[in-house]
Amino acid sequence: MITNLEPLTKEEIRTHAAHYDQAQPAIYCGTYHKYNCGSLYGMWVDITTFDDYDEFCDFCRRLHHDELDPEFMTQDFEYYPESWYHESGLPTASEFERIKAFAELDEDKKEAYEIYLDNYDKDATIEDFEERYEGKWDSPEDFAANLCEECGYFRNLPDWLQCCIDYSAVWRSLDTGGDYSEYDGHIFR
Questions:
Q1: Burial class, 57, CB count within 10 angstroms (exposed 0-12 / middle 13-18 / buried 19+)
Q2: How confident is residue 2, by pLDDT bands cut at 50, 70 and 90?
Q3: 2 closest CA partner among 65, 58, 54
Q4: If 12 and its partner were Cys, which of 5, 8, 25, 97 is the partner (CB 3.0–4.6 Å)?
């Protein structure tokens, strides 16, 4: 099938190809037509290399320039939350922006955000997550001790009495009271 789209240049392919050593969000962009004909032809596309969604979609259309109206199939994905993955079509414009924002988080926050999506709120934005995220701690008891100190609970408490506080009990109270929760060292409000 002939279309009026220009095929991709080698430079465009190099620019937008996913490189596993960089661990950036990527999709394997194929089409249902090719898949149904027994071909897995497509490409691992690094989502973070595009300035905007239209540029991304144009690249994918030009990747499959041999089809008049390609029905895109995201055959696989890497380095973004599994809950955002869907096989049919390309990521939407809002999903594209969400994936790009996810890529800008540091590794601890990426891990924590995925935990938050999987265990607390699958639709949470990064802003929602950051509002509820208290950081990664060596233990919940360390978090409880830090919280008590930051809140000023020790201002009038003598040092000899501070060392008698059972931070395991403080954490249990915070956790069972529903104010805070812990998952794999990450604390959430």
A1: middle
A2: very low
A3: 65
A4: 8
SS3 category, 43:
strand
What pLDDT digit, counting tens, does each position of 81-96 carry? 998 999 999 999 999 9
Report the half-sphere exposure of 4 (CA within 13 A, side-chain side): 0
3-state secondary structure of 187: strand
Q: Are 79 and 25 in contact (CB under 8 A)?
A: yes
Alpha carbon distance 124, 93 (integer Å): 17
CA dihedral over 30, 34, 40, 43, signed as positive or negative: negative
Q: Which residues of 13-24 are buried (b: 16+ CB within 10 A; e: fewer)?
A: eeebebeeeeeb
Give me the DSSP letters along 53-102.
Answer: HHHHHHHHHHHTTTSSS--EEEEEEESS-GGG--SBSSPPHHHHHHHHHH
Q: Which distant-in-sequence residues (6+ apart) come within 8 Å of 23 by Cβ?
A: 78, 79
Residue 3 pLDDT class (50, 70, 90 cuts): low
Contact, 189 vs 179, CB < 8 A?
Answer: yes
